[in-house]
Amino acid sequence: MDPILTELLELGADFIAEFRFIFWYFVSGVALEALVRTFGWHIRLRNLLDRFGHGSIWIAAGIGIFSPLCACGVLPLTISMILAGVPFAPAMTLLVTSPLMSPAGYTLTAWELGDQWAIAKVVSALIMGLFAGYVTLYFQRKGWFELDKLFTRGIPKGDFHDPDYPCEDLQCNCRKMFSKKYVETRTSNKFFIFLGKFVDGTLKIGKFVILGILIAVVAARYIPSDWVSGLLTNTFPLSIPLITLAVVPLHINQIMASAILYGFIDLPLAKGPGLAFLIGGPVTAIPVMVIFLTFFRRRVFLLYLGISLTGTIGLAYIYHYLF
Cα angle at 156 between 55 and 291, to 5 degrees? Predict the structure, then answer.
């Protein structure tokens, strides 16, 4: 048999084996997110943000844990919430927390890396959100982030869900989703809506699971472990900030992060570098940075980036040396 074909078949076999390993956790995570979306629990909680003063920071952190939105999805939502009167501090909390954890993100991390990593990721997401909220609140009190000092230009008024909304960068594409386009327009039956949301989640999350597993399989097969073991096993003190800075330019969401790290699980994976990879990549996604620079003033971008980097590095060191 042709050596290239043999190699491709072996790669395919490795990929199928890894996908079968995480399949049921993938299905359960997608189902849980579909349930949250079907009954709109995340929306009901979100509507509480402008009612509880400083306590809304804690509510926003809790919402972010259950929100199925990634960094690119939560940013337009955050802007609309700010324009609707939600204080900037809890909005920033939601913006930081949501990309780090979701029901599917938890189940997949638990299955791929173990319960300890999944719990560490949940706690880190909560702490990152609270850190972002209270740091933002501190600077707000200094007068740095009043509403008229947030945006570089005027944001068009209107509903981001409207297909005619004039700003394409912020326009929500939820109307194009299977559940909205083909299910909710025809029935109000919760079971069928749940199935539609399940299809949405499978398509959205599945592509990142597949890509993450593919990267992990290729890396495990072709990249010598010595190239990455120096960072992931923390053989020198600077491995945590180096990993944190290295993932900034990468477009890695929470699903891909755990899938990629799973490819190196056979290494004596150190807690700090591993956590830095899990939370550093998703919270600093390049598309979010681009939108930040497009719509927000530079000080808002620097605040978000500073919170993301210092929070990631600090939590990684704490997890590595104290637990």
Answer: 70
Q: Which of 296, 214, 286, 303 is nearest to 255 (CA)?
A: 214
Segments forming the whole domain that contains residue 50: 3-322
Neighbouring C-beta atoms of residue 116, cutoff 10 Å: 11
**Domains identified in the chain, total number:** 1
Average pLDDT in the chain: 77
3-state helix, strand, coil in the chain (%, to 5): 75, 0, 25
Q: Record the pTM.
A: 0.72
Give mean pLDDT, residues 282-287.
74
Read off φ and ψ for residue 296, nearest 5 degrees.
Answer: -100, 155
pLDDT digits (tens, 9 = 90+) for 183-207: 887 888 888 888 888 888 788 767 7
Element (H, E) at 73: helix 71-83
Q: How many Å separate Cα 68 from the centre of its chain?
A: 8
pLDDT of residue 272: 87
Closest to 125 (Cα-Cα) out of 160, 98, 147, 85: 98
User: Mean pLDDT, to the nearest integer, of 136-151?
Assistant: 80
Angle, nearest 10°, between helix axes 190-222 and 254-262? 40
Do residues 313 and 244 lie in contact, with contact meaning Cβ atoms separated by under 8 Å? yes
Do 57 and 130 meet the contact criterion of CB atoms below 8 Å apart? yes
